Amino acid sequence: MPSAIAVHGLRKSFGTTHALDGLDLDVSPGEIHGFLGPNGAGKSTTIRILLGLLRADGGEATVLGEDPWHDTETLHRRLAYVPGDVSIWPNLTGGEAIDLLGRLRGGLDEAKRADLIARFDLDPTKKGRTYSKGNRQKVALVAALSANVELLLLDEPTSGLDPLMDAVFRSEVQQFTAGGGTVLLSSHLLSEVEALADRISIIRSGRNVESGTLETLRGASLTKVEATTATPVDPAELQSLRGVADVRVDGPRVTCSVATDHLGELLERLGVSGIRTLASSPPTLEDLFMEQYRTREASRS
């Protein structure tokens, strides 16, 4: 099955700044794909190109099998976009704004619209100029999630929402993909991406540096280990083991990180000192993201 989004070697510069430097990205139909990177990594530039709002300098990008630059009008009837800072028409009510956005797309599911307004606790009779940031965000989310579209492009979509509304958002996005829709989700809320995404791409300096399922990315990263031992452990000896890092020894308590492939060697060495307690945890998405950030900083220095 063709990719919902296929990007190959995408390049875009603004003067001497290379926003995208050969970016590759593949989003499969029916998945929630997390799209992560530090500020300035090229996420927003990529999304603007996918929306047909910006023309790439080189490379290829297709969205739902179409060229976003040449087929913009057609594509905008097949997708919905929610930015992190929504602006709506000040003199329209929230309900009128939702309906107008629906007409610009492939139409709205009226029953879904009503259900989402209730679930997001939105008053659709108020004028846009009276809405808080969170309520403007709700208008955009209701319009997108009730639209008859195949793809959602979400760039910080829950900015301004409280935790209860964030839970509603997560549930609705999962329902959307369960019905065959596809989602590209860019968010600084890494816990949100970790909970929702089927696959994740991490970009840095306009390039894709990591891509895969969370399990795959964890397998290439470090596992946290905490243990207590019957006899003291030499931290230098642990640090010398393959794949072991961040060793700390405080009396009988040992903490460290270890590459998943070398976990067995670490446990064997700890066993020599008599393991009394042991706990290990895979890296969170935040751990993986920060590891990429530290790698970037180390390469700069």
What does this protein look like?
The structure is a single chain. With 301 residues, the chain is an alpha/beta fold. It folds into 2 domains: 5-213, P-loop containing nucleotide triphosphate hydrolases (Rossmann fold); 222-282, ACT domain (Alpha-Beta Plaits). The protein is built from 11 helices and 13 strands. It has a 6-stranded mixed β-sheet with strand order 5-6-7-3-8-9, with helices on both faces. Helix 3 runs parallel beside helix 5 (133-145) and helix 4 runs antiparallel to helix 5. It is elongated, with a radius of gyration of 23 Å.
Can I get a quick summary?
With 301 residues, the protein is an alpha/beta fold. It contains eleven helices and 13 strands. The chain has two domains: 209 residues, Rossmann fold; 61 residues, ACT domain (Alpha-Beta Plaits).
Question: What tags apply to this protein structure?
Answer:
301 residues; alpha/beta; Rossmann fold; Alpha-Beta Plaits; 2 domains; four-stranded antiparallel β-sheet; 35% helix; ABC_transporter-like_CS; transport; ABC_transporter_ATP-binding; nucleotide-binding; ABC transporter ATP-binding protein
